[in-house]
Design a protein that fits this description.
The chain has 377 residues and is an alpha+beta fold. It has one domain (38-315): Rossmann fold (3-Layer(aba) Sandwich). Helix content is 30%, strand content 21%. The strands form 4 sheets. A 6-stranded mixed β-sheet has the order 8-7-6-5-9-10, with helices on both faces. Strands 3-2-12-14 form a 4-stranded antiparallel β-sheet. A two-stranded antiparallel ribbon has the order 1-13. Helix 5 (220-234) links the parallel strand 9 and strand 10 (236-242). Helix 1 runs antiparallel to helix 2 (137-149), helix 1 (93-109) crosses helix 8 and helix 4 (185-197) packs parallel to helix 5 (220-234). The longest helix is centred in the last third of the chain and has 24 residues, at 269-292. The radius of gyration is 22 Å and the shape is globular. Residues 154-168 and 171-183 have low confidence and may be disordered.
Length: 377
């Protein structure tokens, strides 16, 4: 929960007794309250590196995991968590290079002392955590440089023994399963990434680099719903960045596709289909951001701006925890309302609710399809 006064300044010093949490109008008992104090990204100047860059090209990138929190561990306290997620299956090589260059620029020029950055990649049917949350610029830049050059090209050994094991990669569905169940692989991978980050109680921003994301029919609505719900439950906001940037499209498509032919070339139907397809590829990015509290960066060439926007949005906030008094597994949306128990005049920004679990008897056909798909993973 972000609590600010009328001037936009964070209000500090509040406790659980100062908040009122209601779920569908029913008051809930707050069991946990913690304040995360972060300097505003606008006022926190980027930290200049104290030593020259020492960038290495690894022969093999390590596959690791997001380190879970342990009792008494204050590693993530008062830190801003940014996960850079590169969907290599959704970007052609030129877009991949633009996305990686934007990440390099952010790390070199915009990263502050409060930032911890993680690097994730989706490729080959698995979500790989290439680097856990860290503030070490050289390690971050080395991983990104290796992604640009390509694994197997460098001479430096990875510093992590896990680079030669497959324990760090979260299994994803293969092509045959996706063809059978008509499931969008990018959304399923995003759901996996959100659940990985859900081990941490702090607010997380997942910056999602992709060249659009287009649904393949009504069946994928169930997967979209599941991905958004997983992000909300995990405290993750999606910040999609369209790696294509500002695109000037040829009316009938570029040279990568054959001429459409037929009367559509002359009536404008073919040109309309190209434009509609491009817009639909951005609609899902917009929905992912809007439903999780993030913002999509579309039609903009400076991709670094999308990361900076995710960074600047996260300021000081409170973490509230409670056990719901509603045990019904009906799959319905439960609206949350948070207010202050005192006479303070403040603006509160928080997640508006979540979807409850659902019993099998209430599953739709799409839900049953997703459950069968999960069982085959």
């Amino acid at each position: 929960v972000v609590v600010k006064d009328k001037k936009g300044n964070p209000i500090e010093g509040l406790t659980a007794k100062d908040f009122i949490v209601a779920e569908n109008g029913v008051p809930q008992a707050i069991r946990f309250c913690e304040h995360q104090e972060l300097a505003g990204a606008q006022s926190a100047a980027p930290v200049a590196p104290s030593k020259p860059e020492d960038i290495k090209i690894y022969r093999d990138l390590a596959r690791t995991r997001i380190s879970p929190e342990t009792p008494g561990n204050i590693r993530y306290k008062d830190r801003r968590l940014l996960a850079l997620y590169f969907d290599m299956t959704a970007m052609p090589p030129p877009d991949q290079l633009r996305a990686l260059a934007a990440a390099q620029k952010f790390i070199r020029t915009e990263m502050t002392s409060a930032d911890l950055v993680s690097i994730l990649r989706y490729s080959g049917g698995a979500v790989d955590v290439l680097l856990d949350f860290t503030a070490e610029r050289n390690r971050l830049l080395s991983v990104i440089a290796t992604l640009i050059v390509g694994e197997g090209q460098g001479s430096d050994e990875s510093t992590d023994d896990a680079s030669r094991s497959d324990t760090g990669a979260a299994f994803g569905q293969d092509d045959s399963e996706f063809n059978i169940f008509n499931t969008d692989r990018q959304l399923a991978a995003l759901e996996t990434a959100a659940k990985m980050l859900g081990q941490l109680s702090e607010k997380k921003s997942l910056v999602y680099f992709a060249s659009g994301l287009r649904l393949n029919g009504a069946d994928n609505q169930a997967q979209l719903h599941a991905t958004i719900d997983a992000a909300i439950r995990s405290g993750v906001s999606f910040w999609p960045i369209d790696a294509r940037g500002l695109v000037a499209q040829a009316p009938l498509g570029d040279a990568t596709k054959g001429s459409p032919g037929n009367m559509g070339m002359y009536s404008g139907a073919s040109a309309l289909a190209v434009t509609t397809g491009f817009q639909q590829s951005q609609d899902t990015l917009y929905a992912l951001a809007g439903d999780t509290g993030g913002k999509a960066l579309l039609d903009y060439n400076d991709l670094t701006r999308g990361i900076v926007e995710a960074q600047q949005t996260v300021s000081s906030y409170y973490i509230l925890g409670y056990y719901t008094s509603n045990a019904a597994q009906d799959g319905k949306f439960r609206r949350i309302k948070i207010s202050l128990n005192s006479n303070l005049s403040a603006n509160l920004d928080y997640r508006q609710g979540y979807y409850a679990g659902k019993q099998f008897s209430k599953f739709t056909a799409a839900d049953k399809e997703r459950q069968l798909e999960d069982a085959l993973m």
